[in-house]
Amino acid sequence: xxxxxxxxxxxxxxxxxxxxxxxxxxxxxxxxxxxxxxxxxxxxxxxxxxxxxxxxxxxxxxxxxxxxxxxxxxxxxxxxxxxxxxxxxxxxxxxxxxxxxxxxxxxxxxxxxxxxxxxxxxxxxxxxxxxxxxxxxxxxxxxxxxxxxxxxxxxxxxxxxxxxxxxxxxxxxxxxxxxxxxxxxxxxxxxxxxxxxxxxxxxxxxxxxx
Length: 210
Description:
Helix content is 28%, strand content 27%. By secondary structure, it is α+β, with helices and mostly antiparallel strands. The protein has one domain: Aminopeptidase. Strands 1, 2, 3, 4, 5, 6, 7, 8 and 9 form a nine-stranded mixed beta sheet that branches. Strand 4 and strand 5 form a beta hairpin.
């Protein structure tokens, strides 16, 4: 399938200053920006920037950023699921994973994550995709936020719902390994029934749970 990408941007006034939320950003433009040192949840900031530039240049890859001037202070990524995960097993061209969302501590509590997701979904092309995100409690910054596991889960669900993602059941062993883990999904308006059924077969491998 052809992966169309239409750029959108919006301004967000926060207690810590004005941010621009924009994307999808091409890798070449992203590489020229400053990348805040506190964006280190997944790997050191310079390495994370390298990874984002690579994702931005993938045909299906999408990076939406929040920036303060020329400094990236938050981002969300969309790309095909990791080949080692069950979600890639169907080789579905219209299934994208929201792989990472991160905002520096200075801007947390300003709904930056919600606005990153809202701008992501402004592009009409997103109606052609099933978007998934897998939430695992061991990835959550409970120490930095002071939230317990259930408070953090509630916050994640609220944020993801801003992008139209809803809780979906699955028998995936990693997700089932802790009750706070969850699969959240957004099915675009133009996704066909055949794709939905194929996705359901990936969600549930033990047919008795179907």
